[in-house]
Design a protein that fits this description.
The protein has 308 residues and is an alpha/beta fold. It has seven helices and eleven strands. Helix 3 (112-119) packs across helix 4 (131-139). The chain is elongated. The N and C termini lie far apart (139 Å).
């Protein structure tokens, strides 16, 4: 029986060099040194040499160029900013930019001619003129709460306003609208068909409403309308008694609401909940007054109350 032996023949030592042909995970076969059992030698990392001569000179010129570019950009930006501030003055003398149209935005009661007159636009005004001064003059009008002015190229000015809103009518003896601060507004109530509550100018003790009382009463009427917009249409008039309490007369249902200012949303809701309950309990019998002056109480009156 014959035997076949692979590899070196017995008795020979050390064995002859056998190349390794197995695959390597790094994509290539190991070197012969690895196959013989010895480790390969790796080259030493070379130390970078400092640049001298021409390299140092180029680096110096590069730093100088960066500094010059910074100075140039700074100068250009400064010139542009100076030109931007002086441009309106230069353009103001150009006839092409003279105002030939004025638009009014945000106005309902304020007429266009009234706005232009209040803004006091001089003849030959340029759109590059003093817009802040125009807005300040326009804002001084009694109907204007806030004013802004914009330019629209090439020759249009836009006047934007936020108007003061009328909340009540004050007999003086003629009826004049007032806003929430008690300011008298130059509005024709007949022309605009204003349906607003009437403010009593005479207190229950016979005195007249002063500026502070008028401001407070008008503010409470506006507050009630803001808290309950559906109630605003039913308020016919409001008065102030000698103790500083507010009396508001309501048309539907026909009753009065008496309270001490300022009126809160929660207190108003409590009053109308009690009123609704009273109407449900006694159908056909409407209370003449809902009194909210007492803390944590709502008093329902079916007879005319004492002035106090």
């Amino acid at each position: 029986m014959s035997t076949t032996t692979w590899g070196p023949s017995p008795g020979r030592w050390p064995p002859p060099f056998v190349p390794v042909i197995s695959a390597s995970p790094w994509g290539q076969a190991p070197s012969k040194a690895w196959a013989n059992g010895s480790s390969p030698s790796f080259g030493k990392r070379r130390r970078a040499k400092p640049r001298t001569g021409r390299g140092t000179e180029r680096q110096g010129r590069g730093s100088m160029r960066k500094g010059l570019r910074f100075v140039l950009v700074t100068a250009l930006l400064g010139s542009a900013a100076l030109a931007a501030t002086q441009a309106p003055d230069a353009l103001a003398s150009v006839a092409y930019f003279q105002v030939d149209q004025v638009r009014l935005e945000g106005a309902f009661y304020l007429r266009h001619d009234e706005a232009v007159a209040a803004a006091f636009l001089p003849e030959g005004l340029s759109i590059w003129g003093d817009l802040e001064g125009i807005a300040e003059r326009l804002g001084s009008h009694a109907l204007v709460a806030e004013a802004r002015v914009r330019r629209r190229l090439p020759s249009t000015l836009v006047l934007q306003v936020r108007e003061r809103q009328p909340v009540a009518l004050l007999p003086t003896p003629a009826l004049v609208p007032v806003d929430a601060e008690g300011r008298i507004l130059p509005i024709d109530p007949v022309h605009h068909d204003l349906d607003l509550p009437l403010l009593r100018p005479i207190l229950e003790d016979g005195g007249a409403l002063g500026p502070d009382e008028l401001r407070m009463l008008a503010g409470e009427v506006a507050r009630v309308a803001a808290l309950e917009p559906r109630l605003a249409a039913s308020v016919s008039e409001a008065a102030l008694d000698g103790w500083g309490d507010v009396v508001i007369h309501i048309l539907e249902p026909r009753t009065t609401l008496r309270f001490r200012p300022p009126l809160t949303r929660g207190r108003l809701e409590e009053g109308f909940e009690v009123l609704a309950d009273a109407l449900e309990r006694t159908p056909g019998r409407i209370p003449v007054a809902i009194d909210l002056r007492f803390a944590e109480q709502v008093v329902v009156r079916y007879t005319s109350p004492n002035p106090r």
